[in-house]
Design brief:
Blueprint lengths: L7 H28 L12 H24 L5 H25 L10 H20 L9 H27 L6 H27 L6 H26 L7 H14 L15 H25 L3 H35 L10 H13 L6 E9 L1 H8 L1 H21 L4 E6 L2 E6 L3 H14 L4 E3 L2 E3 L2 E9 L6 H18 L4 E3 L9 H15 L4 E8 L6 E12 L3 E3 L1 H10 L3 H21 L5 E5 L2 H4 L4 H11 L7 E6 H6 L1 H13 L3 E7 L6 H6 L4 E4 L11 H16 L3 E4 L5 H10 L3 E2 L10 H15 L37
Helix pairs in contact: 1-2, 1-8, 2-3, 2-8, 3-4, 4-6, 5-6, 5-7, 5-9, 5-10, 6-7, 7-8, 9-10, 12-13, 13-14, 20-22
C-alpha cells in the first residue's frame, strides 16, 4: 500500500515541532549559564545538582541540539554531524569525570575523561574545515597567510600569558605530561585554524561560521582559564568561567542549519588591513618581552612563526601589486595595436567630467570602410598589420592636435577624444582623413583604406561617456549612409536645440497619439538551421523636415517631455498589430519589444498586456518583453512580481544588453526570465580574441544550465556567427543577416532567406542588388550569402 503524501498541514507542523524540540534542548544549558552568574548562587563551590547533573545535561543537550540542526541541513551534513559527535564526546568526558573519576578518593590523572575531552579536538578541526569550505573551491594564498599571521599571533600572546604556568606544573608520569601539554596546545592550534578559515572568507563568513567561531573562541578562553586555575589551585566550580564554557558549546551547537551565503556583517576594510600589521606587532612584543621574563619556548616559537608568516605575506603582497599593475595595463590596452581600449576611453571621459573648465569634449568615432575585405582576402594577420598601421597614424594626428586619448574600441573602430568644440573637432576629422589617405604596406601590397567618421561634442558640464559615444555612433552611421569615406557630426548638446525643442515635442506627441511611429524589425535567426522564429521591433520616427530619425536623435526629447510611457505603449500596440497581420497571413513571428523602466514599474502591466493580446486574438507566445539589467537591479521585488505576472500569461521575458550593467547571478536565479541577450560588445572580435570567446562560451553555458536561451546581438560577419554556433548560441541577430527593416522589406527578406536555407536549393542564391533590403544569409552551418549592407551598428 502506498504511503499517502504529506498534507500541507503536516508540512507546516514539522518546522514548529523542530523549533519546539530545539527550545526544549536549549533550556538546560541556559539554566546552567544563569546559575553561574555572580550573585545567583547562595554559596560558592561544587553543587551536585547544578555542577553534576545540570552541567552534564547541558553538555549533552547541546550535542543533541547540534545533531537536530545538522539533520535539518539540506547539504553539507558531514561537518555538522562531526561537530555534534565532538560535543557529545566532550560532554561524555564530563559525565565520566562526575560519576566515575570524582567519587574516587585519589582520582587518577590522566583518566578516561581526559581521553574523551581530547577526542573533541580532531572532530572539531574536521568539522571546522568541512563547514567552512568555500563554494567556489578557490584557495587564495594571501587570505590564508593573513589568517595564519593572525592565528600565530593570538597563539603567541596566549602562550606567553597562560601556557607557561600551565605546563610548569610537575607531573608524575609521561602520560600526565602529555595530557597537560596537549590540551593548551590544541586550544592554540584551534585558534590558529579558526583564524585561517575566517581569513579565507575575507573575514566575511556565513552566519553559521560566525556562530561556530564565537563558540570556539569562548570554549578556548574558558578552557585556558580552567587549566590556569587548576595549575594555580584557584579554580572553583560553578563560577562564571563554567558558564562561558557551556555558552561556547551552545553557540557551536547552533552553527549548523544556516544559509551558506555570506552574512551581511563584515569587518571594516581598515580592520581587515590592520589584522596582519597588529598581529606582527604583537609577535614582536612577545619576542621583546622574552628577553626580560624568559617566556615558555612555545610562545617564542609561535611569535617567530608569526614574523616569518608576515614576511611571506609581505613578499606575496609585492608580487600581487606587480601583477595588479600588469593586469591593469592589459585591461586598458588593446593587444593588437597597443592603443587604449574602451575602458581607457570611459575613464578619460570621467576625468574630463570631473574637471569642468567650460571647454566642450569632442569625440571622433572612425570605422574603416571595407576592412572585412582585407581580412577575407589576405587573412587576419594582414588585417592586424593594417590596424596597427592605422593606429600609428592616428596617434601621430592625435599628438599634433592635442588629443587626450586615441583608442581602438574593437574590430575596425577607433576613437579620438578631444578637448575641442565642433569646429575644432571637424578640423581634426579632416586631418584624420588626410593622414589615412596614403596607402599602407601590407603583405608586399599597398592597401588603401577610407574611413567613415562620426563626430559628437558635449559640454563637460553634462558630459557622459555613453551619451557621447552613442551620439558619435549615430553620426558615423549617417556618414556611411551618405557614402563611404565621408564624415558627419551631431550638434554639441542636443539634436533639437532651444526653441525647436517645444515644437519637436509637440510633433512627437501627435505622432505617438496617432500611432504614426515607424517600426523596423530585425530578424532573430537560429544559426545552426537558419530558422527565423521572431524579430525585434525597433522604433523610428519620420520627422517632417529631417526625415527618418533613429532613437538616439529623439529619445532625449521624449524623456524630457514625459512621453516615454506613452511612446512605449504605442510601440507595443503597433508591434502587436503587425504580429497579428503576420499571423493572419500565415507567417507567425514572435515580436520582441523593449519596454521602458516607467512602463515596467506599473504593477498593472501584466493585465494590460493580456488585454492587448486578447483584443487581437494573439497567442501570448508571439510577444517577448525585453528589459534591462538596470531595471532588475533597481527594484528586484517589483520586477519579480511584474515579470512573474507576464510569464503566467505566456509572455516570454528577455534580459537585454546582458553583461553591460551590474550583472548579478542572484537575479538570474530569483527572477522569471527566458532569454539572455548578450550585448554586442561581447561578440566584437570574437574570432581573434580568445578571452572574448571564453566569456561568451561561459555565458552560454551559464544560460543553458539555468534553462535560459542565449541571444547574441551585433553579429556582423560569418566568422563571428560560426564561433557562436560552435559555442552553442541559440539565436543571433545582426547585420550579417539583415539590418532592421520595415515590415514589407522584412517579408521580402524572409522569402529570400527561406529560399536560401531550403534543403532543395543547391545553387548559391545571388546577392540582392544594392537597395534597402540586404541579401538573406542562411545559417552559419553552411556557406553564408553575403549581405549587401556594410556591417555597422544597427
Amino acid at each position: 500500500m502506498s504511503t499517502p503524501a504529506p498534507t500541507a498541514v503536516t508540512a507546516r507542523r514539522r518546522p514548529s515541532r523542530s523549533a519546539a524540540l530545539q527550545a526544549v534542548l536549549l533550556l538546560p544549558p541556559l539554566l546552567f549559564i544563569v546559575s553561574t552568574l555572580p550573585g545567583v548562587r547562595p554559596q560558592e563551590g561544587y553543587r551536585f545538582l547544578l555542577d553534576g547533573v545540570l552541567n552534564n545535561l547541558a553538555y549533552e543537550c547541546a550535542a543533541l541540539l547540534c545533531l537536530v540542526r545538522a539533520l535539518r541541513t539540506p547539504g553539507g551534513r558531514l561537518g555538522s554531524c562531526l561537530l555534534a559527535a565532538g560535543l557529545a564526546l566532550y560532554g561524555g568526558g564530563n559525565v565520566f569525570w562526575t560519576f566515575v573519576v570524582r567519587p574516587v578518593a585519589d582520582p587518577p590523572y590522566p583518566s578516561g575523561s581526559d581521553a574523551l575531552f581530547l577526542s573533541f579536538y580532531p572532530l572539531a578541526f574536521a568539522a571546522l574545515v568541512l563547514m567552512a569550505r568555500r563554494r567556489d573551491g578557490r584557495f587564495v594564498w594571501s587570505l590564508w597567510l593573513d589568517g595564519l599571521v593572525a592565528g600565530l599571533a593570538v597563539g603567541a600572546a596566549a602562550a606567553a600569558a597562560v601556557i607557561g604556568p600551565i605546563l610548569d606544573v610537575p607531573a608524575d608520569s609521561w602520560a600526565a605530561v602529555a595530557v597537560t601539554t596537549a590540551s593548551p596546545l590544541l586550544d592554540l592550534v584551534l585558534l590558529l585554524v579558526l583564524a585561517s578559515v575566517l581569513s579565507m572568507h575575507a573575514w566575511r563568513p556565513p552566519r553559521g561560521l560566525w556562530l561556530l567561531a564565537a563558540g570556539l573562541v569562548l570554549f578556548v578562553v574558558a578552557d585556558l582559564l580552567y587549566l590556569f586555575g587548576t595549575a594555580r589551585g584557584t579554580y572553583v566550580s560553578g563560577r562564571l568561567g563554567d558558564g562561558v564554557w557551556v555558552l561556547g558549546v551552545v553557540l557551536m551547537a547552533l552553527a549548523p542549519g544556516w544559509a551558506a551565503r555570506r552574512s551581511r556583517f563584515s569587518l571594516p576594510r581598515w580592520a581587515v588591513l590592520a589584522i596582519p600589521l597588529a598581529s606582527t606587532v604583537v609577535a614582536l612584543a612577545v619576542l621583546v618581552v622574552d628577553h626580560a621574563l624568559h617566556l615558555h619556548p612555545a610562545a617564542i616559537a609561535l611569535a617567530a612563526g608569526t614574523v616569518v608568516a608576515a614576511l611571506a605575506r609581505l613578499l606575496l603582497t609585492f608580487r600581487e601589486v606587480a601583477n595588479l599593475a600588469e593586469s591593469r595595463e592589459l585591461a586598458l590596452t588593446d593587444e593588437v595595436t597597443g592603443l587604449g581600449n574602451r575602458r581607457t576611453l570611459y575613464r578619460a571621459v570621467e576625468r574630463l567630467a570631473r574637471h569642468d573648465d567650460g571647454t566642450p569634449a569632442g569625440l571622433l568615432l572612425l570605422d574603416l570602410d571595407r576592412f572585412k575585405e582585407v581580412n577575407d582576402s589576405l587573412g587576419h594577420h594582414a588585417g592586424d598589420a593594417l590596424l596597427r598601421g592605422v593606429g600609428q597614424r592616428l596617434q601621430r594626428v592625435g599628438g599634433e592636435h592635442g588629443a587626450l586619448e586615441v583608442v581602438r574600441l574593437g574590430g575596425d573602430e577607433f576613437a579620438l577624444l578631444l578637448r575641442a568644440d565642433t569646429d575644432a573637432a571637424e578640423a581634426v576629422a579632416a586631418a584624420v582623413h588626410e593622414a589615412l589617405r596614403a596607402p599602407f604596406p601590407v603583405e608586399d601590397l599597398q592597401v588603401r583604406v577610407r574611413t567613415s567618421v562620426g563626430l559628437a561634442s558635449l559640454p563637460t558640464a553634462v558630459l557622459d561617456a555613453s551619451a557621447l559615444l552613442r551620439r558619435a555612433d549615430v553620426a558615423m552611421y549617417r556618414a556611411k549612409a551618405q557614402g563611404l569615406g565621408t564624415f558627419t557630426y551631431s550638434v554639441e548638446a542636443d539634436e533639437f536645440a532651444s526653441g525647436d525643442r517645444l515644437a519637436t515635442a509637440e510633433l512627437l506627441r501627435e505622432a505617438i497619439a496617432r500611432r504614426e511611429l515607424t517600426l523596423h524589425y530585425q530578424p532573430k535567426v537560429e544559426p545552426g538551421t537558419g530558422h527565423v522564429g521572431g524579430v525585434e521591433a525597433l522604433v523610428r520616427w519620420h520627422h517632417p523636415a529631417r526625415g527618418l530619425l533613429y532613437p538616439d536623435a529623439f529619445l532625449p526629447v521624449v524623456e524630457g517631455a514625459g512621453l516615454m510611457e506613452d511612446m512605449t505603449r504605442a510601440v507595443l500596440e503597433q508591434a502587436l498589430d503587425q504580429a497579428r497581420a503576420w499571423q493572419l497571413a500565415g507567417r507567425p513571428l514572435a515580436v520582441a519589444v523593449n519596454l521602458s523602466a516607467s512602463s515596467l514599474s506599473d504593477p498593472r502591466l501584466p493585465e494590460r498586456v493580456e488585454r492587448l493580446l486578447a483584443e487581437r486574438s494573439l497567442p501570448a507566445h508571439l510577444l517577448e518583453i525585453e528589459i534591462t539589467e538596470d531595471f532588475l537591479m533597481a527594484d528586484r521585488e517589483r520586477a519579480q512580481v511584474i515579470l512573474a505576472g507576464l510569464r503566467r500569461r505566456g509572455v516570454r521575458v528577455a534580459v537585454d544588453d546582458y553583461g553591460t550593467g551590474y550583472s548579478s547571478l542572484a537575479y538570474l536565479r530569483e527572477l522569471p526570465v527566458d532569454d539572455l541577450k548578450l550585448d554586442r560588445s561581447f561578440v566584437t572580435d570574437l574570432g581573434s580574441d580568445p578571452r572574448a570567446l571564453a566569456i561568451v562560451r561561459s555565458t552560454i553555458m551559464l544560460a543553458h544550465s539555468l534553462g535560459l536561451r542565449l541571444v547574441a546581438e551585433g553579429v556582423e560577419d560569418a566568422e563571428t556567427c560560426r564561433e557562436l554556433t560552435e559555442a552553442g548560441c541559440d539565436v543571433v541577430q545582426g547585420w550579417y543577416y539583415a539590418k532592421a527593416l520595415p515590415a514589407a522589406d522584412l517579408e521580402s527578406w524572409l522569402a529570400r532567406h527561406r529560399a536560401a536555407t531550403a534543403p532543395a536549393v543547391t545553387a548559391p542564391v545571388p546577392a540582392a542588388p544594392a537597395s534597402s533590403v540586404p541579401a538573406a544569409a542562411p545559417g552559419c552551418a553552411g556557406e553564408p550569402v553575403p549581405a549587401a549592407v556594410p556591417a555597422v551598428a544597427r
